[in-house]
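During data preparation, a discrete fold description was generated, as reproduced here:
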Amino acid sequence: MKPREPALFQAFAAILVVAVGLAFWLPGFGRTGGVFPVPLDDVYIHYGFARSAALGHPFAWLPENGYSSGGTSLTYPLVLAPAWALGLRGAWLSYFAAALACVCLWDLCRSVRALLDGAPRRAAWIAAPLLLAVPLVDWSFYSGMETALFAGILGRVLVAAQHATTASPTARPAAQLRAGLWGALLVATRPESAALVGPLGVAVVYGARSLGTWPSLVRALGPMGVFLAAQAAANRVFTGEISQAGAVRKLVGSNPYLTPIEAAVEVIKNLAVLRAQAFEVALGGPSFAFAVPLLALVAVLSRRTRLLAAPLVTGAIGMLLLVSLNTTARYQNFRYAVPSLLFLLVAAALGAGELLRRGRVVRALGLGLGLVATLAPARLFPRQIDHFARASGNIEHQQAEVARRLAALSPRPRRVLVGDAGAIPYLSGLSALDGLGLGGYHDLPFARASVHGIPAIVELIERMPENERPDVMAIYPGWFPELARSFGQQMFSVRIEDNVICAAPEKVVFAADWSSLAPRGATRAGSVFEVDVADLVDERAHGYTFPRPQAGWVIGATLRDEGGHPRFDAGRIVPQGQSESFVVAPHVTRGPATLVLRTDGGAPITLLVEHSGGGAQAVEIPARDEGAWFEARVPLSSVGGRDSVKITAKQNAWRSFHVWLVRP
């Protein structure tokens, strides 16, 4: 009987994995009308990256937009790309993603069985259901996101790490390097998993015994370090940012307007909600949620499993802390907490295996805890399955429907502006611009601009060639009110009922009109230097600073220019008593010039203009017409390259939009 047991376990694991998947997918099919259920629009973002990779443009959301650092996983689209190339295109790619998820979860069960080698055979049969026992985790596993692939690679990382600590001295260096390479692959799949791979690498080094510490560190952690350095370098070269676009857009610390206390409060709120909903409730409620952490603790305390369990628990805590820095951590069914839960579940499986090795009483305790950890969350399966189905219906009936209607338009739109939307460009086949910046557009910092404010996004659109600007916008007006109001004419909208996952029930499509933007490359007569305030490219180039936090807010307006034509410009609010500054470009020769300051209408303002080349002077700006741009002219006796100019609002707030230095 014994030789048949491994094959029986593999069959059991396969049936279990597929059965849980069908439990989610079949109700989803009912909600989507037969289309493979996808409960998150982000899945289609992965599909977009996969399509680009299959077309020979890896790491691009759309080939024409260039390199993008906005993908949450580098490896997942590359794994999907061959299926797209072989013909599984459009929504059909979901079938391959589903099959891949099942294979990866089955492989995770096999890996955990290998980790339990030496424990009673029943340990693996308990571990497999335990790994799939949490409906919140399963929701993410079967969603089409990278989570299942991450789980499969996690199992391989742990097996490789265990082998690196048990291999013979001659085989150990190669085993350490294999563990390091698997760890780097895990980080490439989810960057936050560095919180696990780091401690796991240290554990591998600790188990090296006769091998040198530093060479072991290089083998165990070097591949991850090389990957992270290469990724940061590529980001810097192609986007101008070291960080990934997702970090720039979503991390609490990226918001220039938050005080440290406000940022800390946001992080604490995230931690509180995640602890209560993604851990306590998801693991079975207050009465039963203790089982998984208790089993994980057993694994940490056991000498046999400590080298793996301690990094798993440390990684779960570390990833949770990293996730709490994400402003979207409390949304999308807590999917960002799933890796931490997965780490705990694997550690709990190791703990259950340890208890089953002991005497009868302890074995009974282990079996009881394993059953509680497996069965307690089960009451949430109906809720999570229903949410999965409803969310899939939402995506199909809103995002996918918008894509179909856009694809049917004649003439065909040139480019559609979206807000972090994957299904619309992927299913329509249209080129797109992601207003939130996660899709990327060459080296323009749309992700950072979206944090500063929507008018800053428009400033970057102004930098685009006119024939590449979006001619339609598929947006939530609540997210992009200025765009809808100032640059759009409504074409149609798609509204859904029973919304549980989309940002709003109604997605509206507008025809875009950018005629109020300044022509690309336009210059002012006599100008030798200018700073377009709230244009992040211009601000960075000229050392522009604004008061922060709780100041320097980005604003925008479309007002009459000198010729009476509507002209858009973005700017910043400098509160009374605070200052903005910039540095004159080096090419400006020293001499007299006029400083021209653009503002909008409003009450009288008093400014203090100081510059390093010639003292300070007060500037009185009178009350102004609300419908037209106003320009204050400040004569400077001597100004030249590398001079610093500081403008302070002495009376009332200063609304700064544009600065020029002009000479006859």
In short: The first strand starts at residue 415 and ends at 418. The first helix runs from residue 5 to 32. The mean pLDDT is 94.
